[in-house]
Design brief:
Among the domains are: 133 residues, Rossmann fold (3-Layer(aba) Sandwich), CATH 3.40.50.980; 99 residues, GMP Synthetase, Chain A, domain 3 (2-Layer Sandwich), CATH 3.30.300.30; 113 residues, Thiol Ester Dehydrase, Chain A (Roll). Helix content is 24%, strand content 32%. A 13-stranded mixed sheet has the order 2-1-9-8-10-11-12-13-14-18-17-16-15. Helix 6 packs across helix 7. The chain starts with a helix and ends with a strand.
Amino acid sequence: MNVFEIFHTKEFDTKTILKRNGKDLSLQEFKEFISVAVDFLNSQGRKNAVVLSSDAFDFIVWFFACIAAKKEIFLLTDSSKLKYLEFEYVLLDKILDRKCDKNIEYDKIDCHKVSINFFTSGSTSKPKMITKTLTNTIIEAEDVFAEFLSDYKNPLRVLTSTKSQHMFPFIYYFILPLVYCEKLLMDTTDVCYPDDADFKDSVFVSTPSFLEKFEKYNVKNEYSPYVIFTAGAKIKDSVRKYLEQESTVIDIYGSTETGTVGFKRHSSENALTCINRVEIEPDENSQIVVKSPYFIETSCTLGDIVNIVDKKSFILMNRADRILKIQEKRISAPEVEEIVQKNSFVQECYCFKSAEKLACAVALSKEGIDFFFENGFCYTKITSYLKNYLNGKVEIVPQKWKFLYEIPKTVTGKIDKAKIEQIFATNVSMPFVFDVKKDSDYVEYGVVFPKSCNFFEGHFTNFPVLPGVVQLYFANYFAQEAFDVKVSTESVKKIKFSKIIKPDEKLTLIFEKKGNSITYTYKKDEQICSGGVMTVNEKD
């Protein structure tokens, strides 16, 4: 049963179509929320609606309300992209807390005429807008169901850890259960932490960066999902094998432009298999050309270089945009990364071109962290060790290095290149993070400020001390990292310095969030060194 086909009728109003706050919600109850949203949209003079809701239930209400009110739908993942919209719009986030006294009649939904506008990630430039019809997305959902879920007899809940504004969760979490609402039930519960989620009788739509937490923290849930869909980046083999002990893991390959292209069912597979109605071929540069009914255009060329095995399978080689020209030589960044990651000191890395040099961001393994500690918190020694390791193995050895606790990822699990480039571009030396513990409103970082950091120079001669302004700078920096919020140093209150911080001391930087306030504390052992309170600002 397809919710889009029955939405305008009253015949199926008692039918349960989703779960909210642990409770089943019927189509009639759902329409009561939508009526309020439709009434609001009809009162607005603008034809364009931007859905920015991070809450899954709010998203589905606004989406259906936009269709009913005949608004042009634009899906944005974060407010930073609003500056690229060159038209007037009504912004939709939280659903309205009020009643609707009007009796709203709903027209039959013509899926061919409903346009949905997505945006590519656009982390380093203006994001590209991709328009599809609702029909395109429904066809894709039908193929996904036929390929992966048609054999399951009992109804399954569908959960996600990411936002529906991205193409992958939009299809697999949002459209899929609405098209097959008798066999799949959308559960709008937020999955923020892997260890407290209820995965009984479920399908889980997630990203590699979120799934890595299962292995990293050895998470063992009472129930595991029957099926895990993951996309956005390559999932690590070790993470996949860890999850495959209890669940079927489907690795999806595709893009915002094309939707689903191919998939891997098992960790042992090398090639990707094309999903049902997808056709592929290489262009003159060996980049993959895709044809399918999941998008409006006749074909779409992606930036991935592939080796075509046959008409329905292919092997991903490299990203065309990750072939770097350095010192008049063409370097494959993924090949350098693969060699770096074979070293036991490295957990993960990312290479890119920075100021005509090859740069490498590294997340050290436990063995690498131990080496760093044993060698006096000296960046030079760990850098020299890795450079010597790479000599003779790669044509160009990275010349610029940064050591991070983990490689930054976007919400879809892709490498956050913009954030890494920003870290390399800053003139301030980064502290070394050796441990992170997170909860929803509490985060603590284990940090060291090595003696080689440039802010110790001249502060003070023969007796280096961590400047208060630097403590404040990194309290601000890590608070934003911890809670994905915006704060400013000007908003900090109740600043207190109790004990000096010297180079090479192991510290704990603690953050506690209450409402719009974040308290930070630097501690050495159990002694408080400094602290203050920051105010959260609205993100741009």
